[in-house]
Amino acid sequence: MGKNVSGVLLPAFERDTRAGAGSQFELTGLGRGGQQIQKARAVYMTAVEMLVELASLQTAFVILDEVIKLTNRRVNAIEYVIIPRIENTISYINSELDEQDREEFYRLKKIQGKKKERAAAAQRETDKIQSTAEHDMPVRDILAEQVDEDIIF
């Protein structure tokens, strides 16, 4: 069984606790020094449990170290490669948008200038037509030209 630490599965080792392994040495040393052998066996079992725990921790540290190195590489890639690329893209897009704004402003100014030129030309043309019409035609007295019949009531 393993533990899950920040999305990383860490293995956990366990000591082999088969019943047959310990029972074959129980009667060893009954004639002489049996207690010493039993103490040595207990100390040995404690040492094996500690070694298994130590192996679990060491494996977990190695796996976490590899994951941390991989994460650091990803962070560095994001910080020094991806973010600068995105910033360059953003600045390029901003410069292109500014250029389009300047072109549109210039285009509008040109259109306004042409409209003013056309309006001025049309005004000059109408002024010219009116001035020639006024000079060419004699002034008529409309009231004098009409002769009304006398009306008797």
How would you describe this protein?
It is built from three helices and two strands. It is mainly alpha-helical and 153 residues long. It is rod-shaped and about 170 Å long. A hairpin with a 2-residue loop joins β1 and β2. It has a two-stranded antiparallel ribbon.
Structural class: mainly alpha
Poorly predicted residue ranges: none
Strand content: 5-15%
Helix content: over 70%
Radius of gyration from the alpha-carbon trace, in angstroms: 53 Å
For the largest beta sheet, what order do the strands appear in spatially? 1-2
What's the average pLDDT? 83
Largest sheet: 2 strands, antiparallel
List how many beta strands DSSP finds: 2
Count the DSSP helices: 3
Briefly say what this structure is:
By secondary structure, the chain is mainly α.
Keywords:
153 residues; mainly alpha; two-stranded antiparallel sheet; 3 helices; 73% helix
Give the topology.
Elements: E1 2-5, E2 8-11, H1 19-23, H2 34-136, H3 142-145
Antiparallel strand pairs: 1-2
